[in-house]
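Holo prediction. Input below; ligand is NAP.
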Amino acid sequence: MDKHRVMILGTGPAGLTAAIYAARANLEPLVVEGAEPGGQLTTTTEVENFPGFPEGVMGPELMENMRQQAERFGAKFLTGLATSAKLDQRPFRVTVDDDEEFEADALIISTGASAKWLGISGEAEMMGRGVSSCATCDGFFFRGKPVIVVGGGDSAMEEATFLTKFATEVTIVHRRDTLRASKVMQDRAKANPKIKWALDTEPVAVEANEKTVTGLRVRDNASGEERVLAADGVFVAIGHRPNTEFLENQLQVDKVGYIVTKEPSSATSVEGVFACGDVMDPVYRQAVTAAGSGCKAALDVEKFLEASVTHDTSAATA
Ligand code: NAP
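Structure of the complex:
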């Protein structure tokens, strides 16, 4: 069986930054690319808030650059999905694509989180062309235009409030007549004159011409009637799902499934397993915060492996 000192699962900004640091520390990490190589940034177009790019950078290009940087220092990449892991023994065991097994002395989990989508007609087709799940990433492109936010939780309130900085108006479409969001977030959104409400209203289809989104077809739950709300952008804010199913509760996760780390380190409840990026961060979820946490995870692994060697050597000489 192929054995490595460190395996990194996931290749978003967190995983790739961890790979750069681990490779530069001569740990020759094996990096498993997962279902979405490059992570969520590869589904966006221009990234304008990653430091160091005054003119912005395309998401896929940024991720390709990070990958090449990691490769340059000796990181090895494997295309495949980590489908299961055995964390109750060391070396840890990771199965990729239900088929190949690998061993590693330390693991960095950076499998990210996936935005939940509505699954309605037009949504997937118009992704990146008016449909988005990230107001911080894409809000700027809707300056002077009307947009819609779908959802009734804190994310929807936060995204809608943020979008009022750019959009002419923001309509919140929510499937029930009561919101799930905390009172403080609701109150802030309700006090914003640019925010309009379509409650007890179900999204039915994203309307678009050949190039861009033109609106959202919705159904009024009380009357059953359908209408189209005109908008240039539809932001889906119905929550995220951390990609932790493959771990089958072998380490501590919160009630939604995000990995719990021992702040300020990236250590998880299993010694030798570290987590970084969106898989452990339900709050900030930015490329730059993910990259920062990836750096922390690699430094933590380096320290952990050094301590294990010292421990093994002293045990052998005792
Ligand atoms: P959430 O609390 O789970 O809310 C998701 C919302 O989307 C709910 O209103 C839900 O409707 C709706 N929804 C889910 N599936 C849907 C579907 N298929 N069709 C239409 N609507 C759908 O998720 P979240 O807002 O992302 O928040 C996640 C966690 O992060 C929460 O604990 C939240 O407090 C926290 N958070 C905090 C902040 C902050 O404090 N600044 C900001 C963002 C998030 P129902 O209500 O009908 O279920």
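DSSP finds six helices and 19 strands in the chain. That is the main takeaway for now.
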